[in-house]
Design goal:
The complex is a heterodimer. Chain A is mainly β. Chain A has strands at about 5, 10-15, 20-25, 30-35, 45-50, 55, 65, 75-80, 85-95, 105, 110-114. In chain A, a hairpin with a 2-residue loop joins strand 5 and strand 6. Chain B is built from no helices and eleven strands. Chain B has strands at about 5, 10-15, 20-25, 30-40, 45-50, 55-60, 60-65, 70-75, 85-95, 100-105, 105-110. In chain B, a hairpin with a 2-residue loop joins strand 6 and strand 7. Chain B starts with a strand and ends with a strand. Classes of the chains: A mainly beta, B mainly beta. At the A-B interface, strand 4, strand 5, strand 9 and strand 10 of A face strand 4, strand 5, strand 9 and strand 10 of B.
């Protein structure tokens, strides 16, 4: 069963701590994305990657880092530099660009700072 | 500034009626527009894609229109059912900007039995 898996579902971070959110897909999609969703706001793009070993900053990349060492995996690290990390994080993938294909989203990770 | 506005934050309709959701955009030049459904605590699910040169797309009980003159997309669900209750998101992509999809804040639809 093809899909995109995010883990963990819930994550708690202490002040000053880095945490890594996992995203794995077995859809053979080239492109992968990380979005952040806050109440009352649209999804905002953090980072995206169109091919292995290459990724681009989105609109709100500050305080985040990513890697794309394998086609299937696109982990997101929320660093201590991110001052307001509490949010719902969504990973997505697509065949190529959105002109021809919709995105497939994971079920999300809810990050809370404690 | 750039904005994507979806009509009301919440829309309630009676079962069996047609739900119409609106997506208006400002200061974008979209090449395409997508609609997604999102249930609470879940990721969005892709529903329909319409390109700038297309006026209308249909899929089962769903219909989307795209008017680049009005800078608006309408999303219709005919013969609505309680199971259609969810938040619906519109998202647009431009010719420039690679793979960045810009999302509206969504409309929460409730279909009343």
């Amino acid at each position: 069963d093809g899909g995109i898996t995010q883990s963990p579902k819930y994550l708690f971070r202490k002040e000053g701590q880095n945490v890594t959110l996992s995203c794995e897909q077995n859809l053979n999609h080239d492109a992968m994305y990380w979005y952040r969703q806050d109440p009352g706001q649209g999804l905002r793009l953090i980072y995206y990657s169109q091919i292995v070993n290459d990724f681009q900053k989105g609109d709100i990349a500050e305080g985040y880092s990513v890697s794309r060492e394998k086609k299937e995996s696109f982990p997101l690290t929320v660093t201590s530099a991110q001052k307001n990390p509490t949010a719902f994080y969504l990973c997505a993938s697509s065949m190529q660009d959105g002109f021809n294909y919709g995105y497939t989203f994971g079920s999300g990770t809810r990050l809370t700072v404690v | 500034s750039q904005k994507i506005e979806q009509n009301s934050e919440a829309l309630n309709i009676q079962e069996g009626k047609t739900a119409t959701l609106t997506c208006n955009y400002t200061n974008y030049s979209p090449a395409y527009l997508q609609w997604y459904r999102q249930d609470p605590g879940r990721g969005p699910v892709f529903l329909l894609l319409i390109r700038e040169n297309e006026k209308e797309k249909r899929k089962e009980r769903l219909k989307v229109t795209f008017d680049t003159t009005l800078k608006q997309s309408l999303f219709h669900i005919t013969a609505s059912q309680p199971a259609d209750s969810a938040t619906y998101l519109c998202a647009l992509g431009e010719w420039t900007g690679a793979n960045n999809l810009f999302f509206g804040t969504g409309t929460r639809l409730t279909v009343i039995p």
